[in-house]
Amino acid sequence: MKRAFLCLLGFAFILSALCVQTVASEKAYSWYCVHEKEHRRPRIDPSLGFIEELDGYYIGPEKADEDKVIYLTFDAGYENGNVERILDVLKEESVTAAFFILGHLIEKNPDLVLRMAQEGHTVCNHTYHHRNMAKSDKETFSAELSSLAKAYRDLTGTPMASYYRPPEGRFTRENLVWAKEMGYATVFWSFAYPDWDNQKQMSPEKAKQIVLDNVHDGEIMLLHPTSATNAVILRDVISVLREEGYRFGSLQELREKGSSEEGSLG
User: Which stretches within 47-137 are classed as H helix?
Assistant: First the structure.
């Protein structure tokens, strides 16, 4: 019996042809997407249709018109000099983005959080402590989101935007249920690249190529603003995307489109 149980835990991933979700147990998932060629939109395995049912998003809805949109998002847990540089570029380029923040940023760099809000960015919930929420019970889950939302409101005097991103993309179906009950939409991503390790930053040229080679309509782009490489390439990325006819949309727009169009998960 013990050996059978260990074998069950060892079955660690489900692989689709398009997006991959690693399964840690029967109910726990770790989200990531396989990059498609020729700017095709990634899709998820049909078994994860519950994400859409529970107000979850990883890509914008497919559209028949010519409007090409990117939803630019950042996971911001701390400042190392590059978050401010990213904000400088966004301000100079008149681009607003969504920042999923942690309690540490509010505690140590409240000025940056205030700046995000004042400059029109959507400030969102990434939990207070960046724990693995797939292992949490409902009380812990609620406390992580509520404590961050309270800290943000105490700092800014305004409510935190009702968007949640699971730390490291780890989640369960129950997590999405609980988030929805709290009024949150859960926002995953359709593009990310290895930019989070400050000791393993790739060259700006390589990073920019990866970002631009994988652009697709309705993309929810995940970047980490602590990346020195991202701070260097962001202006060029924005410029090229605009030249290619893309604009930058908001999560509010994404949510409104997703609720009004069937098949919002692509």
Answer: 50-53, 82-92, 103-108, 110-118
Question: Residue 228 in 3-state DSSP?
Answer: helix
Q: Which pLDDT tens digit goes with each residue over 218-263?
A: 999 999 999 999 999 999 999 999 999 999 999 999 999 876 654 4
Of the residues 75, 126, 216, 217, which is catalytic?
75
End-to-end CA distance of the chain: 41
Amino acid identity, residue 70? I
Compute the distance between CA of residue 172 and CA of residue 185 in angstroms, rounded to an integer.
Answer: 14
> Is 45 known to be catalytic?
no
Work out the angle at residue 125's Cα, subtended by the Cα atoms of residues 14 and 169, and round it to the nearest 5 degrees.
15
118: domain CATH number is 3.20.20.370
Name the amino acid, one letter, at 110.
P
| CB-count burial class (<10 Å; 0-12, 13-18, 19+) for 34 | exposed
Residue 226: which domain range? 50-260
* Residue 224 known to be catalytic: yes
Q: Which of 121, 126, 216, 224 is catalytic?
A: 224
